[in-house]
Design brief:
Helix content is 22%, strand content 34%. The protein is an alpha/beta fold and 380 residues long.
Length: 380
């Protein structure tokens, strides 16, 4: 990606999809060019958390909500150290932010971090196109030296696809760090960072857990050097079929019988560790309004999602795995995609969505309590 200074509202911009569909609008954020996978997010709020979610690395996010930027940007809500989206697409950007927590406009923040965006296009038409054709490679181009459409399309088609992309190490921490427990320390958890969101560690800390966040390339010895009561595998970007190292570490954790919890990419890692396959969804689940049923209770939860891959596991039967019996614990009610797994003979479970809900509903916060219960049971 190349960028220059903040794009003026009148600077022309063009969005080019790999199938040849073109949308023309105005620059939003930085002026320049960027490439990635075009995906859409259905959330009507929480754009700052979306932008800073490492799982969006190398993706160009299309916002289906037409009015974006009205609450500005603050210094409290980022989920990581930077904006990770490769590009940003909005229909009607707010001219002036209006919120008591706002510190600066969204477009200024995008420009400051070099994020190329486009505004003033029909995001409803673009979303419908992606739903029908599937997520695909895309480029956004703005400024005075934009080449002709044929040249732009050729450049988009040179971009590597998301399938087969190994990206977790590009977004994870390079050095271990500790998030201390809030109040009395009750447990220690080793968290393998594959693209972890800040609120995830905070949700555990609020329950008396001292969280040791480890790099994506952490070994089994690194995990157990912190003497964990439990092990956590985080969300993250890329194709889970490439994540051989995290899968091998998880298998070692399962062999030892340490309580284990995985979220999003961590759910896909558990699926692979148990012997299931993974596959790419046509256009994925992204937003904060996705209905999921917890099959252990029958309760339907409104949940926060960001995933383009899923686990291929039997929905209606218990499976035999190298680590005992396993079952699908959660399922998406929109399309029957696997949204959670649990082992019946070992203390391990995972979910595909984001129970830390930053931003989003808090229906699934109980999953952190389940993790605590597993560690309490193991200690007892």
């Amino acid at each position: 990606m190349t960028t220059s200074t903040r794009g003026a509202a009148r600077t022309p911009a063009v969005l080019v999809l790999e199938d040849g569909r073109i949308f023309r609008g105005r620059a939003y954020g930085a002026v320049g060019e960027t490439f990635g996978e075009a995906v859409f997010s259905t959330g009507m709020t929480g754009y700052q958390e979306t932008l800073t979610d490492p799982s969006y690395h190398r993706q160009v996010v299309v916002m289906t909500a037409p009015h974006v930027g009205n609450t500005g940007v603050n210094d409290d809500d980022p989920e990581s150290r930077r904006i990770w989206v490769a590009g940003y697409v909005v229909r009607d950007p707010a001219r002036v932010p209006s919120n008591w927590r706002s510190r600066r406009p969204l477009d200024e923040e995008l420009a400051a971090q070099g994020v190329v965006g486009i505004s003033g296009i029909d995001t409803r038409a673009l979303t419908r196109h992606l739903r029908e054709r599937g997520a695909m490679r895309v480029g956004i181009f703005s400024g005075a030296t934009v080449p002709d459409d044929a040249a732009l399309l050729a450049r988009v088609r040179e971009v590597p696809p998301m399938k087969g992309a190994d990206l977790a190490a590009e977004v994870a921490t390079t050095e271990p760090y500790v998030v201390p427990a809030v109040g009395e320390k009750k447990f220690t958890v080793a968290a393998v960072d594959l693209g972890i969101k800040g609120m995830t560690a905070q949700r555990m800390a609020q329950r008396g857990i001292e969280v040791h966040v480890l790099p994506a390339n952490a070994t089994v010895d690194d995990v157990y050097a912190v003497e964990p009561d439990g092990v956590f595998f985080s969300n993250g970007p890329g194709d889970p079929a490439t994540a051989d190292h995290p899968v091998s570490v998880m298998r070692a954790v399962l062999e030892r019988g340490t309580p284990l919890f995985g979220i999003c990419f961590g759910n896909q890692i558990l699926g692979r560790a148990l012997g299931f396959g993974t596959y790419k969804l046509k256009y994925g689940h992204r937003g904060i309004n996705q209905p999921v049923q917890d099959r252990t209770t029958g309760k339907v939860e409104v949940t926060s999602h960001n995933h383009g891959f899923a686990v291929d596991a039997p929905l209606d039967e218990v499976s035999d795995t190298p680590f005992g019996r396993a079952e699908v614990s959660h399922v998406c009610l929109n399309d029957n995609v696997v949204e959670g797994l649990r082992l019946l003979d070992k203390p391990a479970f995972s979910v595909q969505y984001h129970p830390e809900a930053a931003a989003g509903p808090h229906d699934a916060a109980y999953l952190f309590d389940r993790f605590v219960s597993l560690m309490e049971g193991q200690r007892a």
